[in-house]
Amino acid sequence: GIQVEQSPPDLILQEGANSTLRCNFSDSVNNLQWFHQNPWGQLINLFYIPSGTKQNGRLSATTVATERYSLLYISSSQTTDSGVYFCAVSMEYGNKLVFGAGTILRVKS
Amino acid sequence: NAGVTQTPKFRILKIGQSMTLQCAQDMNHNYMYWYRQDPGMGLKLIYYSVGAGITDKGEVPNGYNVSRSTTEDFPLRLELAAPSQTSVYFCASSYPGGDQPQHFGDGTRLSIL
Predict the structure, then answer these.
(1) What pLDDT is recorded for position B71?
(2) Pick from A33, A41, A93: which is nearest to B98 by CB?
(3) How would you write A53-99 as a 3-class SS string?
(4) Sign of the torsion angle spanned by Cα atoms A40, B28, B55, B73
(5) What is the pLDDT of residue A1?
């Protein structure tokens, strides 16, 4: 099956810093989503981005489908950005997502 | 707008007991999914459904059963609970098609002792 690798596994930032999270996937996909899991365990859909670039406030994402990777940019990080960021992809009928292991982000004040 | 609602939020079971995790969505989504998340890991798909009366296995279906009698509800049944099923369970839903964003419930934290 498709493999999803996220890097880095762990990231510690000072408040106000910028960061880039990466997601590599091993095959062509028709669906790629970025999620933020907050410290209470809730999964929040950040972007649906199988290709191209999107921006939402301080967050933006770019997927280069032909090279099989996606990047999530966080600018001017805040303590509320802390949590785990997951990339998930699907290449099959039925929209069955395969998740990466996540990047744990800690933002310190 | 409730979205995806999961009940209960927490549950402790004894080995060998059975229970049903409930999931309901009010967005008229045809597709529904059950995932489990083990500590420090990403989510893994247990079962999914593309419409009422249609279900199929995901990556880790052993020890679980599902049914889909209505568009709104997608319960997950655990028979003969085992310690390996201790996990956080997430239900999700989406519109039809392999290119739609999924919306998740808040999860059910299940411990089996």
Answers:
(1) 96
(2) A93
(3) EEEECCEEEEEEHHHCEEEEEECCCCHHHCEEEEEEEECCCCCCCEE
(4) positive
(5) 85
pLDDT digits (tens, 9 = 90+) for A16-46: 999 999 999 999 988 899 999 998 899 999 9
Chain B contact for A71 (CB, 8 A cutoff) = no
Nearest to A41 by CA among B64, B55, B38, B84: B38
- To test the contact with chain B by mutation, choose from A2, A95, A96 the residue with the greatest count of B C-beta atoms within 10 A, namely A95
Select the residue of A33, A42, A98 nearest B102 (Cβ to Cβ): A33
Residue A69 has which token pair? 């990777």
Coil, strand or helix: which one is B87? strand
Label residue B40 left, alpha or beta by phi (over 0 means left) and psi (-120 to 50 means alpha).
left
Q: What percent of chain B has pLDDT over 70?
A: 97
Per the CB < 8 Å rule, is A41 touching B50? no
Closest approach of B35 to chain A, Cα-based (Å): 10
